[in-house]
Structures are given as structure tokens and as C-alpha cells.
Amino acid sequence: MLEQRIFYGGRVKIINMRGKIRIGMDISQLAHTGGVATYTRNLAEQLQKLQDLEMIFFYSSLRKPYKGELKNVKKYRLPPTLFEMLFNRWRNVGIEKFIGSVDIFHSSDWTQPPSKAKKITTYHDVVPLKYPQWSHPKIVSVHKRRLWWVEREIDCVIAVSEATKKDLLEVSNIPEEKIVVIYEGPTGNFKPQPEERLRNFKKKYGLPEKFILSIGGIGERRNLNRIKEASRDYNLVIAGVTLPWLGTDELELFYGSAQVLLYPSLYEGFGLPILDSFACGVPVITSSVSSMPEVGGDAAVYVDPLDIEDIKKKLKTVMGDKKMKEVLIKKGFERIKCFSWEKTAEQTYLVYKKTLKNA
Predict the structure, then answer these.
(1) C-alpha span between 246 and 33 (Å, rounded)
(2) pLDDT-derived band of residue 16, with 50, 70 and 90 as boundaries?
(3) Can you tell me the distance from the alpha carbon of 8 to that of 150, in angstroms, rounded to the nearest whole number?
């Protein structure tokens, strides 16, 4: 890389002579499954395509080596607990020690490394801070330590929904002017699948011909007890419970095989399953709280997630009304056009530029 080193204020500053912004990005969440990993993978892939950025990726996992296709990945085989202590507690080593000099470091949701660069982070939700009873005490402690540093050092926070921004303002001292909302995109380039592929998928996993799909998770957040009670008259399949978590290559078959997505979660920072269902041509019943109405718009049916009778009533209506299903599917196809990872990356790039401009 073509660069120039100059002395400024007693420090060595590296100038990228090609005019590209050097972005360091933590992608360690790719070692796990779930929404944060989906965000990290898709955003990193799109940012790497932008000509004005030079991406340097930081990845650390003791058990899962990086096997993706991103370029310029600095890989370390160390446990995440070590980096949590190193970055959130001791803070005597900067991220530059691992990835070199960068203009901006974009952190994930687990650690907040010290850095001489401008600092940006993404908040996907604030579950450990707002609902600590749903998380292990150690996880709550990690997020509290990280937030302490975010409040003091961060230059910009990306929230994945207006609901998450609102929650951040409630549980933190981050100034509102430092929080920018940038929506996510669907998990993959999903679309409705041919009936033969859907039949083969259901046969492979022993799924019923007709079923309602719900999304599992740890703790009470996904509202599974009320879901089970409200859907007793139907076949219920729960992702992560009835079936193990599936890879992206089979996920669109899983969604596409369902009659409806029943997703009355008690809280979501964004709600990717809503977009994924829209893309696969599946009607959505979801909660009227948190971020779900933001994502679903007028293309979903909303329920009070605490009201079993409301869930049961809306489910019966959607399942028994073929015309209503068709309308919801059509609206879902229109709604999904509002979200894409290309748009997410472009808006993130603009945040990078604005952050450097304000330096």
C-alpha cells in the first residue's frame, strides 16, 4: 500500500496516498450464529466492494478458524474472554497492535478496544442492559463494562432501528447526536422456491406438510410459551428447537415451507426473520412493540405479545383467509424492497466520511 508517514503533534501519522479511508472492522462475531453474525458478514462483504475504502478485518476465535472469503483478515486463535479483558478491562494494548494503523475502527458488540483512530460501533439491541433478567450475569457485566468505554470514547454509534436508538437513550449517557439509525437487510438473497424443492426439504427433516414457523432463542424474549399455547390447533415448528439452526443455504427453504411466520417476540433490536419471510413469500404475524412495526410496515399483522387470545385470534384469521394471505405476501414483496445490504453499506460509508470530516 502506498502511504506517507509524517510527524504531527509529536505523533507519527500515516497518510494513505491513494485517498482511501482505512477501516478496521471487528468480524469476530462470524464465529457464532444469529443476527449479529448475519449483520457482520453481509456488511463486511458490501463494504469491501466500495472503491473508497480499504478494509482491514480483525477476527479472533479459539475454536472456529476463519474460513470466509473476505480479504485482508488479521486472524488470531485466542479466546474471546481474553480480548474482553484486554480491551474492556486492562486497555493497555490498542487495536493497532493487531491490525496496524487505521483511520476508523468499527467495533462489534462485545469489546471496545482502545485506538488512536476514530471509533464507531454498532448496537443491535440493548437486551443485557434493558432486560438483564434475560441474560447471564456475566454477559450483563461485559456489556456494562463495554458501555462505560463507549460513552466516553465513541465518536458515533450505529443503531439498527429507531427502537434501538430510543432504548440506547434510555439506558446510556450517549448523546442523541452521536447515534445514527441504519437499517439492516435480509439474511440472504432469498426468494420463493419451487414446490419440488420445498417438498424435498420437508421430507429431509420430517416436517409436516403444513406448519407455522416460530423462532427460538435463549430465555423468555422469543415468547415461546405463549406461542405454543396460541398455536395448539396447528403444527408448530420452532427454529433452533424443533430443528437445529440451519445454514443460509437451507434457510430460504425453511421459511418458504411455512404457512406463516408467527413472531410475537417481546423485544427485538431489528427482526431479521420478518424480512426473510417477506423475501420468501410467507405471511408474517409479529409484535406491535419494539422494532417489529418499523421492519414490517403495512405488510405484517400485529399482535399484543402478552395477549394469548389476541395471538390466537390473529393466527386463526390469517390461516383461514386465503385472500388475506395473498395480500400479505404481495405487500411483503414490496416491503422487502426498502431494505438491502448495499443500502446499509452505503449509509455506513457516509457515516465513516462524516466522522472523519468532523475530526
Answers:
(1) 10
(2) low
(3) 26
Report how far residue 15's alpha carbon sits from residue 74's, in angstroms, rounded to the nearest whole number: 21
- 333 by Cβ neighbours in 10 Å (0-12 / 13-18 / 19+) ranks as middle
Question: Sign of torsion, CA 5 20 161 223?
Answer: negative
Under a CB-based contact definition with an 8 Å cutoff, are residues 291 and 124 in contact?
no
Question: Bridge partners of 260?
Answer: 212
C-alpha cell at 176: 442523541
The contacts of residue 251 (CB under 8 Å, 6+ apart) are 187, 188, 190, 276
- pLDDT digits over 126-151, tens only? 999 999 999 999 999 999 999 999 99
Residue whose cell numbers read 388475506: 324
CB 120 within 8 A of CB 107: yes
Helical pair 322-335 and 272-280, crossing angle rounded to 10 deg: 110
Return d(Cα 93, Cα 144) in angstroms, integer: 20
C-beta of residue 317 within 8 angstroms of C-beta of residue 235? no
CB half-sphere exposure, 279, CA atoms < 13 A: 23
And the C-alpha cell for 256? 418458504
The values of phi and psi at residue 15, to 5°, are -105, 125
Q: What does the block give as the cell for 8?
A: 504531527
How confident is residue 78, by pLDDT bands cut at 50, 70 and 90?
A: confident
- Residue ranges and CATH numbers for the domains of the chain are 3-185+340-357 (3.40.50.2000), 195-338 (3.40.50.2000)
Residue in the structure block whose three cell numbers are 472503491:
51
CA distance 157 to 181: 8
Separation of alpha carbons 225 and 230, rounded Å: 9
Separation CA 48–CA 120 (nearest Å): 17
